[in-house]
Design a protein that fits this description.
Order of helices and strands: HHHEHEHEHEHHHHHH
CATH topology of the largest domain: Multidrug efflux transporter AcrB transmembrane fold
Radius of gyration: 31 Å
Structural class: alpha+beta
Distance between the termini: 54 Å
Largest sheet: 4 strands, antiparallel
Strand order of the largest sheet: 2-3-1-4
CATH architecture of the largest domain: Up-down Bundle
Number of helices: 12
CATH class of the largest domain: Mainly Alpha
Strand content: 5-15%
Helix content: 55-70%
Length: 385
């Protein structure tokens, strides 16, 4: 029964490869549009555990009832003396009245933002000093200058406290604080820096997105080079890689349609799943090459599928069991990681049994007359000469 279905399936692939390729391509594009629903989100410590954990549940209840204490979130802006030229008029001592006036300006600007409770800085300790000497005197008399100014007077800080706000609101406020500091002209020789958990989260998010793209690209390039060397054929290398690419595109699409998002903890999942996914492509292409030496195209496709479907299915089931097991743990991000790995591996399996046979048939029927399979050896031979 199964063998008859495979024979019938193989016949359809051989007789209608272009129609099937179009159907498969359109379907994968529609599925892949789900990726537009995916957002890269920040991940807090409480995101690593489910709400049913006693301490997390208590934290949520207390936070909802009483907030997270005074200020909720604290942002810090550092203004540092960084003169570009020797013997210039650039500020070298942050107790300079010009800088203190600038700090007062941006403090008032930031304090007007909703959800900001207080803005504390060295400017609060002085009152319109006319000269640097007067500013130093007022700062010394306040007895609090060391809270905002470094011992060598090279930098000073602003502390910004807010109400209890969500992670998205924290990120938005961090951007508004940065904008407020940058849109007011800083005195010559002053550089601004930013710290506090929201600013650190933004930096971590940027680095995670950059790393995700780099690792995925490097992984695909590395895998491609390996399969090209394995088959000694660029065509066969690209064909085996197609199942992997199909699995990534459609798997991420379904992940988006299911309403999941990517976080720093799940951003490396694509690279992790490539090992199993590329094996499906290697098995099908290798088996087809062997069968093609003995049979015509239709028979070779049929025998190829019969030969690889059992070991590939066993490998798929074993992988899914392993990935699904991640969902049974108490660490929440592992569940999302397991879901994404399961989807990409499943669709790589589907691609190996649908897309790859179609591409192999199209190559043998049409493309091989234009681009021979031994083009790799020809190029290699010319290089050696």
């Amino acid at each position: 029964m199964i063998e008859e279905m495979i024979d019938s399936y193989s016949k359809k692939i051989v007789n209608h490869p272009i129609k099937l390729l179009i159907i498969l391509t359109v379907s994968s594009i529609l599925i892949a549009t789900g990726a537009s629903n995916i957002e890269n989100v920040d991940q807090n410590n409480e995101d690593f555990l489910p709400d049913t954990v006693e301490s997390v549940e208590a934290f949520d209840v207390i936070g909802a009832e009483f907030g997270q204490g005074e200020g909720g979130t604290t942002y810090t802006v550092m203004l540092e003396s960084s003169p570009s030229y020797a013997n210039s008029t650039e500020i070298r001592d942050v107790r300079d009245p010009e800088l203190l006036r600038y700090i007062e300006t941006i403090s008032n600007d930031i304090e007007s933002i909703d959800d900001v409770v207080t803005v504390n800085s060295a400017a609060d300790l002085v009152e319109s000093p006319a000269s640097k000497r007067e500013a130093i005197k007022q700062l010394q008399e306040s007895g609090q200058a060391s809270q905002y100014i470094s011992e060598d007077y090279s930098f000073t800080i602003l502390r910004i406290s807010t109400t209890d706000i969500s992670s998205d609101e924290q990120d938005e406020l961090a951007s508004r604080i940065r904008t407020s500091v940058e849109r007011n002209d800083k005195p010559a020789g002053i550089e601004a820096g930013y710290t506090g958990q929201p600013f650190i989260n933004q930096a971590f998010q940027r680095e995670s997105q950059s790393t995700q793209g780099q690792t995925s690209l490097l992984s695909i390039i590395g895998v491609f080079l390996v399969v090209v060397l394995l088959f000694r054929s660029v065509i066969n290398g690209l064909t085996s890689l197609s199942a992997l690419i199909f699995g990534i595109i459609t798997g991420i699409g379904i992940f988006g349609w299911l309403g999941f998002n990517l976080s720093p903890a799940t951003s490396g999942s694509i690279s992790m799943g490539m090992g199993i996914a590329i094996d499906f492509g290697i098995q099908t292409v290798s088996r087809y090459k062997d069968e093609r030496e003995k049979y015509e195209i239709e028979k070779a496709v049929s025998e190829m599928i019969k030969g690889v479907i059992k070991p590939m299915t066993i490998a798929l089931i074993a992988a899914i069991i392993g990935f699904t097991a991640l969902s049974f743990g108490r660490i929440t991000f592992l569940s999302e990681l397991g879901t994404l790995l399961t989807l990409t591996t499943l669709f790589a399996y589907i691609g190996a049994l649908t897309l790859i046979p179609i591409l192999l048939v199209l190559y043998d029927q049409r493309i091989s007359k234009i681009i021979p399979d031994n083009i790799y050896q020809k190029i290699l031979g010319e290089i050696k000469q």
